[in-house]
Amino acid sequence: MEFSEAIALLALFVAAGSLSISFKNSRDQKNLSLREVEWLRIQIANAQTEQSGGKKADVSARMYKHSKNTWRVKIFNKGPNDAFNVRLVINDDNQFLVNSDVMRKFPMDRMEKGQSVELLASVHMQSPAKEDVTICWRDAENVEKSKTVTLTV
After folding, report:
1. pLDDT, tens digit (0-9, with 9 covering 90-100), for 29-88
2. What is the CA radius of gyration of the chain?
3. 3-state secondary structure of 87
4. How far apart are CA 76 and CA 27, in angstroms?
């Protein structure tokens, strides 16, 4: 084999390797494009879901231990929009919430998204393990909503 033939053979191997790498890169680029298209579809679907449900407030409550002997109830709006005319409906045999604190803070004209209100809770040895509280509000579309939350010690 002459020197020129060896160079030509080496050039053939380099060209074949280059072609192989080019095909692999093309295949990877196609897979990446398909993933980008799928990602855009997901983003569009999420945006449409947010837009259609974006006017809904979601008011909820939870009870937590504030310090060694004090408990609090946090009423909060975890929805993407404001809640209006927020009210609490408490049973007559309420044993958790301090009525004077509830009367002082509710009803609220407006509860912005992410806003919360803390209420004093009275827990003692004879307290029940759980109690239901109903939260009522209007959303931005002026639709009356309510949710019953079970507060537990």
Report:
1. 888 888 888 999 999 988 887 666 556 888 999 988 888 888 899 999 998 888 999 999
2. 31
3. strand
4. 50
* Contact by Cβ (8 Å): 150, 68: no
Asked if pLDDT for residue 103 goes beyond 80, the answer is yes
CA angle 65, 107, 153 (to 5 degrees): 20
Question: Mapping DSSP to helix (H, G, I), strand (E, B) and coil, where does residue 20 land?
Answer: helix
Strand order in the sheet with 130-138: 108-111, 83-90, 130-138, 144-152
d(CA 130, CA 91): 12
Beta bridge partner(s), residue 146: 136
Q: CA separation (Å) from 129 to 17, 63, 92, 125?
A: 73, 12, 17, 10
Rounded to 5 degrees, what angle do the CA atoms 99, 102, 103 make?
85
98: which 2 tokens? 């301090």
Q: Residue 111: which of 70, 80, 132 has the closest Cα?
A: 80
Instruction: State how far the alpha carbon of 137 is from the alpha carbons of 30, 58, 59, in Å.
Output: 50, 9, 8
User: Which residue, chain included where needed, has tokens 């604190």?
Assistant: 101
pTM greater than 0.70: no
